[in-house]
Amino acid sequence: MNALPLLLIGLAMFAGGYVLYSRFLGNRVYKLDASFRTPAHELQDGVDYVPTNKFVLWGHHFTSVAGAAPIVGPAVAVIWGWLPAFLWVTLGTVFFAGMHDLGALWASARNKGRSIGTLSGRYIGGRGANLFLVVIFLLLLMVVAAFAVVIKNLLISTPSAVIPAWGAVAVALLVGQAVYRYRMSLGLVTVIGVGALYGLILLGDAVPVELPDPILGMSPATFWIIALFVYAGVASLLPVWVLLQPRDYINGVQLFVGLGILFTSVLLSAPTIVAPAFNDAVPAGTPSLVPLLFVTIACGAISGFHGMVSSGTSSKQLDKETDARFVGYFGAVGEGLLALGAIIAAVAGYRTLADWEAVYSAFGQGGVAAFVEGGGAILNSGLGLPVSLSSTVLATMAILFAATTMDTGVRLLRFVVQEAGEVAKVRIGNVAGTLITLAVGAGLTFSQGAGGEGGLRIWPLFGTSNQLLASLTLSIVAVMLIRKRRNPAPALIPLAVVFVMSFWAAVVQLGDFYEAGDWLLLIIDLVIIVAALWVAFEAVVAMRRASREPPEALDADVTEKGELTK
After folding, report:
1. What kind and span of H or E run contains 239?
2. Is the Cβ–Cβ distance between 67 and 401 less than 8 Å?
3. Spacing of C-alpha 203 from chain mean position
4. How confident is the model at residue 445 (pLDDT cuts 50, 70, 90)?
5. Which of 47, 165, 300, 328 matches a 20 to 30 Å C-alpha distance to 512?
6. Digit-coded pLDDT (tens) for 244-303
7. Distances, alpha carbon 330 to alpha carbons 22, 196, 324, 456, 470, in Å
8. Cα gap 201→207, rounded to integer Å
């Protein structure tokens, strides 16, 4: 079998989901209202609250939520066979991720741009909110630390990606000035910006940059990690329109072009899928397909991290409430497309089954390396691109996805630190919150060595904690829908599936950590399990209470004190 049917069926399902299901959600469930005054207008401050063109905001949202996870997860999960991964990515994107991302964006916009953590206090209860913050903090910490390591590894293994990866920052700064200060046409700026990025890719392929060892008394690995944390800290403090927003937008367009190139190569070459649909000969030590598939592929099917981006930055930039459908649901579709590309690259980018099995010799193998290697082979056979240039294109894509998620993650983690300060009645400013965030993130990353080995120390918990957070976010959306007497089933069904699978996986991992004697991960996993159970109980109570209360007004808003008004 060749990969062409996978690509065409996947594209058709994503298109149908956006055209049909997202319209149903927007019109019948969330009832998006173009006349509603969004937080971007009501609280406009030129820093975080900035009314934004929906295409620019989509670029920010898409690249912030995507990161490296929709590449890593699917490219690891194909060890069970390509069919389970394909079904979870396509069905999960259409019925789970789109509902979740659009719902989190709508919920936050209807509550003055407040984060999901804060909303949990209003809709579920104060006790649940504090535990919610713990899960959110741990999840963001995992993302920031792990993505620094992923980017560092790519910059070292693919030196041709160094110039385009860092050059993208300069391009983004110029794009921001062109659009916001000089009011240039967005279309013209987009063409020039994307052209500049691909020019940098050609330059990077011609002039690879390998750092000397040592550099400034540090190894290249240490240097790159420190540089990434400094960059992310500065980016998180700047007004969103200066760097974060234009960087994410122009990267989003460039990355979609990259996906288009990959999919075109599949159409032209129709590469053969060498991996089995169901792998009955998984390597020893590989965990069971159920429930681990549903947490191995988080981003690319449904991801709690998306709810934090939707409610942390995107909701504060929403120009019209009706834009939420394009930004939220189509942002999830964009990530599904990336996950689909990762699956195809990982199962059809190798010449023989033996070559594929050599890569997938143990659970956890594959990932970004399989995406770059397999995708590069497809680009070479489909479009005739040189192998080195193909690898540069795909490595740059992975770096830019991960980098945009990392700088957004630092900003979100700062928000969480500030919210925790409010709980403790301690005011934490933006600079202080950022310094705390960087100290904790860098501390974890370097906790096991100067090469950043600690950055992946707690990453095994990402999938379960991320999916549990997604189910808890959906519980907030469900409570809001019940209060407004709207159909909560589109939220409750994915909530139930994701919670059961992720909780099951967390319990399985608890046993694995105990057998391995990994007490740190065991304790953190136990904290996450207890927090999830507690919040789930509070959520059920909140839903029952909401069903008995008088219906909330359709145009209800929330005051700064959290009180309902009309």
Report:
1. none
2. yes
3. 29
4. very high
5. 300
6. 888 888 888 887 888 888 899 999 989 999 999 999 888 988 889 999 999 999 888 899
7. 9, 26, 9, 30, 18
8. 10
Sign of the C-alpha dihedral computed for residues 399, 405, 410 and 413 taken in this order: negative
What residues are paired with 135 via a beta bridge?
A: none
The helices-and-strands tally (H runs, E runs) of the chain is: 24, 2
Q: Which of 297, 261, 305, 327 has the alpha carbon at shortest distance from 52? A: 327
**Whether 463 contacts 77, CB under 8 Å:** no
State the pTM of this model. 0.86
Tokens 């096991």 belong to residue: 448
* Predicted pLDDT of residue 285: 85
- Concatenated DSSP letters for 278-322? S-SSPPTTPPPHHHHHHHHS-TTT--HHHHHHHHHTGGGGBSSTT
Ranges of each domain in the chain: 4-457
| Count of Cβ atoms closer than 10 Å to residue 169 Cβ | 16
Q: Which residue has the tokens 């927090």?
A: 531
d(CA 169, CA 261): 23
CA 434, distance to chain mean position in Å, is: 21
- Cα-flanking dihedrals φ and ψ of residue 433, to 5°? -65, -40
What topology does CATH give the domain 4-457?
Amino acid/polyamine transporter I (1.20.1740)
Q: Quote the CA–CA distance of 129 and 116 in Å, as a whole number.
A: 9
Cβ–Cβ under 8 Å, residues 101 and 306:
yes
